[in-house]
Write a structure and sequence with these properties.
This protein has helices at 2-10, 17-31, 33-47, 50-62, 66-79, 84-96, 100-113, 118-130, 134-146; strands spanning 154-156, 162-163, 179-182, 199-200. The chain has 202 residues and is mainly alpha-helical. It has a 4-stranded antiparallel β-sheet, with no helix packed on it.
C-alpha cells in the first residue's frame, strides 16, 4: 500500500536524488502539493540535483507562482555559484518565462566560463536571434560547429574512479548510483574533480 511504499522510499532518500523525486510524488498525491514540495526541497538541499531543482520549478509554475520559481532558482544559483548545471537551470527558467534580458546575461556567463558547452551556446544563440543580434548568434553557432566533439567522462564520486560510459554500479567501491558526469574532464572548469560538486547529479 501507499504507506508501506512511502516507508520503503524514505529509507532510500539518503542514497540518491531519484528517491526524493518518488517520495515527493507520493507525498503530493497523498498529502497535497505542498507536501511534495517539502520533500523535493529537502532533497535538493541534500543532493544539489538539477533534476530536483527542475521539479521544484515545475511545482511553482504549475501552481501559478513563477515569481517563487525565480526566487528559488536565484537562491540556488547563489548557493551553487560554481555549479554550471545549476546555473544552466536558472538561465533556462528565465528563457522559458521570456525574461530574455536576464536569460541572456545568465547564459553569457555560463558560456564565458564553459566555452565547450554546446547546449548553453545554442540556447544563447537562440536568444540572440530572438533579439535580432544575428551576428552574435552566427558566431556562437559557428563556434559550436567548429569545436571539438565533447567527450564525456564518468566518475564515481565515492571513490573517484573514472569510466568511459555510464553504469549504475561502481565495480571499484561497490556503491550503487554514484557514477556521474565529470564536469572537469568534460572541460567545464570545475576545480575539484573528486568531490560531489564536480559531477552532474541526476
Amino acid at each position: 500500500n501507499a504507506a508501506a511504499l512511502m516507508k520503503h522510499v524514505s529509507r532510500m532518500t539518503d542514497s540518491y536524488p531519484e528517491a526524493y523525486l518518488v517520495s515527493g510524488e507520493i507525498q503530493q498525491k497523498t498529502s497535497g502539493p505542498s507536501a511534495g514540495f517539502r520533500v523535493w526541497d529537502r532533497g535538493f538541499r541534500e543532493t544539489w540535483s538539477p533534476v530536483l531543482l527542475m521539479r521544484i520549478g515545475e511545482y511553482f509554475l504549475s501552481s501559478g507562482l513563477p515569481e517563487n520559481a525565480i526566487e528559488y532558482y536565484q537562491n540556488a544559483s547563489r548557493l551553487r555559484a560554481d555549479d554550471p548545471a545549476i546555473q544552466y537551470c536558472a538561465a533556462e527558467l528565465h528563457a522559458r518565462l521570456e525574461l530574455n534580458r536576464e536569460a541572456v546575461r545568465l547564459f553569457e556567463n555560463i558560456v564565458q566560463n564553459n566555452p565547450v558547452w554546446p547546449l548553453a551556446s545554442k540556447a544563447l544563440a537562440d536568444l540572440y536571434l530572438k533579439s535580432g543580434q544575428h551576428q552574435k548568434a552566427a558566431t556562437l553557432l559557428a563556434n559550436i560547429v567548429n569545436s571539438q566533439p565533447l567527450i564525456l567522462q564518468w566518475q564515481c564520486y565515492n571513490c573517484s574512479i573514472m569510466y568511459t560510459e555510464y553504469q549504475g554500479y561502481c565495480t571499484e567501491c561497490g556503491r550503487w548510483n554514484t557514477i556521474k558526469i565529470n564536469l572537469e574532464q568534460a572541460g567545464f572548469g570545475v576545480e575539484d574533480a573528486k568531490g560531489p560538486s564536480a559531477v552532474i547529479r541526476y
